[in-house]
Each structure stands twice: as C-alpha cells, then as structure tokens.
Design goal:
Length: 153
C-alpha cells in the first residue's frame, strides 16, 4: 500500500512539474523525470536530452502565442500502486491571460484535458517515467477500456 508520505511526495512532484514548466526552470523540470522517461504532450520526447529540447522549443514558441503568463493546474489526482510503478491520473487545466483581452475576457484556457502518468521511485525520490497528455478525460478513459479489453483476451 502506498504510504501517506509517498503520496505527499508524489503530489509535490506534480506541483513542481507545474511550477518549473511555468517559470521556465528547464534543468529543474528535466530532473523530475527518469533518464529514460517518455513524455507525450503534442510531440514525443524520450530521455533527458529530448526533454531539454522540448523546453527550448516551448520557450521559442511563447512569444508567438495569443496569451501570456500561462499556468498549469492539476486536480483530482488519483494515485494507484501497481507492481513496479505508481499510476497517476489527473485533470489538466492551463489558463493564461489574453494578449488582447476583450471587455471581460482576459482569461483564456489554452489547454485542458488529462494526464496519465507512470511514476517510479528513482534515486532520492519519485520521478515521472512516462507522462501522456490527453485532450479530455473521456479520451483517457477510452484508452484504458481498450487496454483492459486487450488484456482480457
């Protein structure tokens, strides 16, 4: 059974992910991943070198976005202990301020959806081994149903 201190440490991992990606702390963000991690968030990044490249591409695109000051928010985090990893599922909301706001429309939601995570104990703490972003929780649920059906065959 996943201990309370492990659950708290994993919640801290989620919080640091959001903080570091939103404040462009590239090295600290990459350190949240195992060396062989896979991140599927629009593109696929494998390992620390590609995760660094992801952050650099993200930084280059920021000025061309129709918004600024974006913040990642995760909620309804559910952690399930598996044989050799912890499965994490959560909602994702990314909100920002519009560059050209309307009279009452200065907040925009560039992304929402869900994350599916594989989290492992690595070195001195918990790290993401894999993370995939889905455009909705329904898409994530459909994936899980398909995997469960395939496993039952």
């Amino acid at each position: 059974m996943l201990r309370a201190d492990d659950r708290l440490a994993i919640h801290e991992l989620y919080a640091r992910y959001n903080l570091y990606v939103d404040t462009d702390r590239e090295n600290e963000w990459v350190d949240l991943w195992t060396p062989d991690a896979v991140f599927e968030g629009g593109s696929v990044s494998r390992g620390h070198e590609e995760l660094h490249a992801f952050m650099r591409r993200r930084r280059e695109r920021l000025d061309s976005q129709p918004f600024h000051s974006a913040q990642h928010w995760n909620n309804s985090i559910v952690l399930t202990e598996r044989a050799d990893f912890v499965e994490g599922v959560c909602y994702l909301i990314r909100l920002a301020k519009a560059n050209k706001p309307g009279p009452q429309d200065d907040l925009v939601f560039p992304n929402n959806g869900a994350y599916y995570d594989r989290i492992v104990r690595h070195g001195d703490g918990w790290r993401f081994a894999a993370r995939k972003m889905y455009s909705s929780m329904a898409d994530l649920a459909a994936r899980r149903l398909a995997e469960d059906a395939a496993a039952a065959v």
